[in-house]
Design a protein that fits this description.
By secondary structure, this protein is mainly alpha-helical. It has two domains: about 60 residues; about 130 residues, no CATH class. The protein contains nine helices and no strands. Helix 6 packs across helix 7 and helix 8 crosses helix 9. The longest helix has 30 residues.
Length: about 220
Amino acid sequence: MGRTGRLMARYRSQPYVVQAIWASLALAFVGALATMNWSLAFVAAATFVLSLAPVLFVRRVGVTLPMSFFAGIVIFIYATIFLGEAFDFYYRYGWWDGVLHGGSAAGFGLIGFLFVFTLFEGDRYAAPAWAMAFIAFSFAVTIGALWEIFEFFMDQTFGLNMQKSGLVDTMWDLMVDVAGGAFGAFCGFLFLKEKELGGFTGVIAEFIEMNRSLFRRMRR
């Protein structure tokens, strides 16, 4: 199988939603070049490259991502950069920013929990469940706070308008980050208590099953 064939095989192995997003980015890139819309071409290319970053990163650190987790990351990047910036979804829909902040915070809450759980090598009794959940919550809120600092820096340095209404926008974003981070951490807490919450706790279980070497102390 040639290089093109291998690339097509990898493309078809991705979730359908990821295939659709990559196809739309390719069409947007080609269309932007044809109409000499260089800014749209740049955003489409940047979105595609960033959507590949999680795969390259986890391969470097020896981690396997569940398909659902990877699809969620790609959707978030697409919604944030391509739809949000290139098509002004942030300005067209007032709820767009809040949904993305909440979803990303919940995701970071799950990531924070998995990171803490990895440190204990899957030993669910190494620390109280509430303590692991609190660390995961703190991780998610910290990421949200750093992002707000980044927005402030970009606005002050380059004259952008990432904060929109300033303090009001920042505070609403932080409150949404707290709610989303609490939800993600709560999913980790329920997992430790061996309780289910739809597909959210299922993502944790799937990640652990695909990376058993990181959770050697976990009982089956």
